[in-house]
């Protein structure tokens, strides 16, 4: 398994998914589950694998998924600042 830094350098970003699902015993009630992992936008293969697992193994039927992601390593920005010399 690659380290977090190696995954970030490979283009992965910290991804958070808020997963809404229906309670098995009370389908009219929505619950939420927060999932967070390094993943690659916009395909999100790691999240897709987890959601496939969820559909296969967990009784709560998925309702919706909200995804947020942020690249933690990105190109820096440079700015030139001119300072006056004091005599």
Q: Would you identify the regions where 5 or more consecutive residues have pLDDT less than 50?
A: none
Q: Label the structural class.
A: alpha+beta
Number of DSSP strands?
3
Can you summarize the main beta sheet? 3 strands, antiparallel
Oligomeric nature of the chains:
single chain
Order of adjacent strands in the largest pleated sheet = 2-1-3
Mean pLDDT: 85
Total domain modules: 1
Helix content: 10-25%
How does CATH name the architecture? Answer: Roll
Shape: elongated
At CATH level 3, the topology is Ubiquitin-like (UB roll)
What string gives the helices and strands in order?
Answer: HEEHE
Radius of gyration: 20 Å
Number of helices: 2
CATH class type: Alpha Beta
Assess the beta-strand content as a share of residues: 25-35%
How far from one another are the termini? 58 Å
List keywords for this structure.
2 helices; alpha+beta; Ubiquitin-like (UB roll); three-stranded antiparallel β-sheet
């Amino acid at each position: 398994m690659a380290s977090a830094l190696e995954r970030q350098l490979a283009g992965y970003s910290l991804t958070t998914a808020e997963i809404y699902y229906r309670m098995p015993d009370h389908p009219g009630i929505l619950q939420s589950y927060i999932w967070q992992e390094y993943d690659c936008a916009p395909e999100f293969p790691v999240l897709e694998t987890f959601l496939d697992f969820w559909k296969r193994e967990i009784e709560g039927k998925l309702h919706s998924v909200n995804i947020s992601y942020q690249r933690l390593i990105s190109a820096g920005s440079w700015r030139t600042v001119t300072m006056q010399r004091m005599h």
